[in-house]
Design goal:
The chain is an all-beta fold and 129 residues long. It has no helices and 8 strands. The strands form 3 sheets. A 4-stranded antiparallel sheet has the order 5-6-7-8, with no helix packed on it. The chain is globular and about 45 Å long.
């Protein structure tokens, strides 16, 4: 889900439990944070407290926390890799950021989603997989 001001998020619901029409918190939540409409740096976590909101499996900030440089501004959802050519990527969810110029990976380690597969590939303007 492309964020509103500060965060990009990735949502997931298994098809077996996805009835459609889920509330991903648009306009009240941004990633895991409460969205107050004006302040990107509020860091007010707590979208679990908003009734009926399905939280993302992970999110990321739009600016690099280390130096404030642009990091990404438009997440592009992808696929879980199941090929044979790159065994290290088997089971990894690959996604991109259109303006960030990168493809990254994440996986469900059983305790939650880990998005530490950073910079799998540099790529500009990825709009679809």
């Amino acid at each position: 889900d492309v964020g509103q001001n500060c965060r990009e998020e990735v949502n997931f619901l298994p098809s077996a439990i996805n009835s459609g029409g889920e509330n991903y918190g648009w306009k009240t939540c941004e990633g895991f944070d409460i969205f107050d409409g004006s302040n990107c740096n509020s860091g007010t976590a707590g979208c679990t407290a908003v009734d009926g909101v399905v939280e993302p499996v992970f999110d990321y900030v739009r600016t690099d926390p280390g130096n404030g440089a642009p990091f990404g501004r438009s997440v592009t959802g992808g696929y879980v890799y199941r090929g044979n050519d790159f065994p290290v990527l088997d089971g990894i969810y690959l996604y991109a950021d259109y303006l960030g110029g990168w493809i990254r990976g994440a996986y469900d380690d059983g305790a939650g989603w880990d998005d530490t597969y950073t910079n799998v590939l540099s790529a500009s303007s990825v709009s679809t997989f």
